[in-house]
Amino acid sequence: MTHRGQAPAGTYTNPILNADWSDPDVVRVGDDFYLTASSFGRVPGLPLLHSRDLVNWTLVGHALDRLEPAARFGRPRHDCGVWAPSIRHHDDRFWIFWGDPDQGIFQVNAPEIRGPWTRPHLLKEGKGLIDPCPLWDAETGEAYLVHAWAKSRSGVKNRLTGHRMHPDGSSLLDEGKLIVDGDRIPGWFTLEGPKLYRHDGWFWILAPAGGVETGWQGAFRSRDFFGPYEEKVVLEQRDTDVNGPHQGGWVRTGSGEDWFVHFQQRGAYGRVVHLQPMRWDADGWPVMGDDGAPVAVHRRPGLPPQQPAAPATDDDFPGGRYGRQWQWTANPRDGWATQHSGDGLRLTCVRSADAHDLRRLPNVLTQRLPGIPSAVEAELRLDSEEPGARAGLAVLGDAFAWIGLERGADGSVQLVHRFAEGTAERERDAARPVPAPGGRARLRIEIRPGARCRFVHDLGDGPRPSGQVFAATPWRWVGALLGLFALAPGDGRGHPDLHAGAATFTRFRITAL
């Protein structure tokens, strides 16, 4: 599915990625551009996107197979995990640095974008260390690292700390120094998300402030890495629809054009990605967008044309395998999804004491909520004979709702629709159950503007709406997710097997409305 409308010839329309690709950073290697984004507690993590024109992007893999320590991420931690990564290319290797707010700063690296990627290396341990970005200075051979702070973990925010770093990225060479104190800049607050560069004899830090929904993008420069830095606001909302244009990355094309990729917070849709033109003014400061205001439509980068593309969403699950667009809500375990000779995703009905609350389940397979009005469809067959076994299609966030099939105590299968508010500890019915002879259903979510969702089901006698329209809700930092799941009640005690049969999903589709 393509997540944006058609732009006039020779132009592009923002957002270029109309879904929750949070905290994007970008790098150019030769004629190719690569982007990564936050993945928080979902697995696999650190998505890797590729483009040749900065407008059309495809998902080519992930840099992180599992979150560590494995036991900590054996259950969902939706707003934790991988925060705000930076991607760089140095010494013929790709490098990604990120902050886990509860553990510290990590890095992984690889000879090629598709790997193999190293296991996470903890570069700096500590609470509240976030948004790290490295710099290898080609002029001096020295390496540096800058990072921000999360007040929720450290009690500190609105400041940037700088380190010298060993050129091999293995360690930091000092205790760190406060290099930008946002409290000393009148009107600035929540300074975060720094990206570090060397340009025109200056050290540059591009960093947003003012909060993700209402803030602005700043630029800082100094002749010395440790400062002092002078600052300037270089991108802000003004009279546009782009609230709080927030952190991202600068990239220069092979022909010397400058562009800036950043995100916009859009509630349940998460953090969608915009592309801004960038130039340098007479005083050497970057100018982003239309003289500092975000653009909606703009001339395309001067790069060879590329076929329209977007990260995949649809899936036929050939051989029972799922595409790169899917992520589990925690580190996966063997046996959750079974490969087989046909098509269709065969999910095991995992026994769980948390069957009443999808937010607590690690075995939910998710992808991003599309940022435009869309219809989401999947076909489901419940194969489990276990009383209470169920499977369905969900809209998952701080509140959640789902529609699917459940096996009753009498052996019959019913179509059920359940939901839970953000403060509720367990789900309840959103509509009366309906008999589902044959244990099959076609499920549909119609997503309208404002992320207002309507469930629809078809049991073979035509589509019928179910329950009330509801608004998808995000978590604190993560946009709402689409999810597929299969489960059975109970914690597995007294059972020789934690699994209780299976359910099969086929023909998953997202189409624009």
Automatic annotation (TrEMBL):
<dbReference type="Pfam" id="PF04616">
    <property type="entry name" value="Glyco_hydro_43"/>
</dbReference>
<dbReference type="InterPro" id="IPR023296">
    <property type="entry name" value="Glyco_hydro_beta-prop_sf"/>
</dbReference>
<dbReference type="GO" id="GO:0004553">
    <property type="term" value="F:hydrolase activity, hydrolyzing O-glycosyl compounds"/>
</dbReference>
<keyword id="KW-0378">Hydrolase</keyword>
<dbReference type="Pfam" id="PF17851">
    <property type="entry name" value="GH43_C2"/>
</dbReference>
<dbReference type="InterPro" id="IPR013320">
    <property type="entry name" value="ConA-like_dom_sf"/>
</dbReference>
<dbReference type="InterPro" id="IPR006710">
    <property type="entry name" value="Glyco_hydro_43"/>
</dbReference>
<comment type="similarity">
    <text>Belongs to the glycosyl hydrolase 43 family.</text>
</comment>
<protein>
    <submittedName>
        <fullName>Glycosyl hydrolase</fullName>
    </submittedName>
</protein>
<feature type="domain" description="Beta-xylosidase C-terminal Concanavalin A-like">
    <location>
        <begin position="315"/>
        <end position="495"/>
    </location>
</feature>
<keyword id="KW-0326">Glycosidase</keyword>
<dbReference type="InterPro" id="IPR051795">
    <property type="entry name" value="Glycosyl_Hydrlase_43"/>
</dbReference>
<dbReference type="InterPro" id="IPR041542">
    <property type="entry name" value="GH43_C2"/>
</dbReference>
<dbReference type="GO" id="GO:0005975">
    <property type="term" value="P:carbohydrate metabolic process"/>
</dbReference>
